[in-house]
Amino acid sequence: MKQLFRYLLFTLLLIAFFNQAALSQSSPLLGDSIVSTLNSELSGESAKRNLEYIARLHRIRGSVEFKKAISFIESKLKEYGLEQIESFQIPTDGKTMFGSQKGRMAWDAEFAELWELEKSGSSWKPKIRLADWESMPITLAEDSESGEATAELVDIGAGTTDKDYENKDIKGKLVLTSSSPDAVVSLAIEKLGAAGIVSYTQNQRTAWWKEDQNLIRWGHFNSFAKTKTFCFMISLKQAADFQQRLKRGEKVMLHAIVKASQHPGSYDFVTAIIKGTDPKLKEEEIAFTCHLDHQRPGANDNASGSMTILEIARTMKKLIDEGKIARPKRTLRFIWSPEIEGTIALLNYRPELPAKIKAVVHMDMVGGGPVTKSVFHVAGAPKSLPTFVTDVGETFGNYLNEQTDAYASGYSYQYSFVSEEGGKEPLQAVLGQFHMGSDNDVYNEASFKIPCVYMHDWPDRYIHTNYDVPANIDPTKLKRAGFIGSASGYFLANISEKNLPAIWNVVKQQSLKRTSQMIGHTSQIPSSEIDNVITNHFNFERSVFASLQKFVTVSPALSKDADLFYTKLEETSGKSKVPTDKNKIVSTVYKRNPAIKGTLSTFGYDYFGDHYGAEKAKSIRLLNYTGLWGHEYAYEALNFVDGVRSVVDIRNALTTEFGPIPLEIVEEYLVALESIQIIQRIK
Fold first, then answer.
1. Which residues touch 374 (CB under 8 Å, ≥6 apart)?
2. Are residues 123 and 135 in the same domain?
3. Cα–Cα distance measured from residue 19 to residue 21, given in angstroms and rounded to the nearest whole number
4. pTM of the predicted model as reported, rounded to 2 decimal places
5. Are both 572 and 636 inside the same structural domain?
6. What digits encode the pLDDT tens for the residues 122-140?
């Protein structure tokens, strides 16, 4: 009852504060003239036209068509008048390490077809072409190797256990599997001698999983596997047809031919800037980032993010040249790169970039229209990186939520943020959730500690499939993402002491919202954990305020005001008056190995599995642990290793962020990291 009373009291204070804040300003952080100017110039149509070209290219890292995409962006940057345009390459050979990333070799395909055959006398002749690299390259799994086979098809189900192969002769045959291609190589290809793979693996599990049986999912192999083979991807509908015929005892004969291979290549990048004006601050940068690589068409993932930051670059440069907005104090940088692996390589290969970048606006899937069932997010940084930067992004996201909802509902509004060729639905962005899964993982990670405003759609029913097409992209959504990104980046590039009252008001609002959420969480955990959660929460909130010092000089008066605010908030939330550090349990302390920078598990390479051992890694419980309100324990456990926190401190911080976790599970993972020299014991 006492806890419920505290929660209700705090909720009333929260409502009162938000109502007061709502009355005090009509637009957040930027003046109405800048908001109006950005809204007038940003074009969802322009972004979508560029997207339509990019979506024609099969943009696999290091490939010929990825290089075409880089050249297209470079030409547009020149057309738009951007400064210091640079395209460059980082060589990759499948061996060289860039921090925690082993550079994957490039992969290109020349030709690939899969045919079903029919009996003609004593021979077999082509009946129907099932897959074709030229018309639909997604049908060939990435990193497939050249090969040819005319063979019978055998259904192996998942194909991941010996039981799946009982009473089945697959040597020299093609196997049909529901698993991803790389999951069946060890048994089907290496052990039992199958000639190749046909996969109908389905997309990430969402509410729409398996609903559309015509989808063909992007497949891929382990780039570093010793055994090379090929795989064709087919739809669930086609697979069901095969299975029905095989059950009737019909022989299904296929002919597969592939001409493709890995080869030494490169990660390719293009970057450009809008130079800042302040004599000192111009050496600091606010970066707009995305990942350019993906299978064709890859319209939302991630032609949408790539072309939206290109539209921001065009808009900002044009408005500056026309004198409609001032050139920013800090430099704006725009970066197009391969996803995650490319960013790890980039920040290790060009260390001057992370040294300059103060914050990142990252976009990965920002254009999904109603048919994609997408939900738009403006996500925050993890708790290991307390920062006001994500509060800025959320504030602009909330502003668009309010404005677009009022417009769609027929109420009074200032700006609709609608493109002429786009939809008119409210944005309804989800604000503040911490999500992993894109290059923001790298920037936020403790090796670099660069805070991100991360915009993305999730779920999206067509991600990684042949239906991720430009027709499903909404120009209005592109424009709205462009506004949140450009407004956030421009504000951060210009923030100064005169902005402190406004940004402090925003930080207080966000702190109240997070504190309300934290109080709700305490109702789900044992009473023994409550004081720990409250203590860690307010340590985080005070650190968010302290992060302002990385951009501006905070006056003693404002620091005193902040201390009073947090003290009163702590009292209202029921924090114990007994400092927890008086009774703190002393345990092992680790520090991070500075020679290995980057996340430990990325698409295409798993540093932890490679060095610790893939089989041994399966026994590490933290890697798959799910808490009450989160599951990214392993990522954050390493981020919390700082030479100061003990293992107990790290466990307590993880409990606050994601939900209670046994200490021994955290210890197990940290000991494993120590064994592969990612961290070093100092106490």
1. 300, 365, 368, 457, 458, 459, 460, 461
2. yes
3. 5
4. 0.95
5. no
6. 889 999 999 999 999 999 9
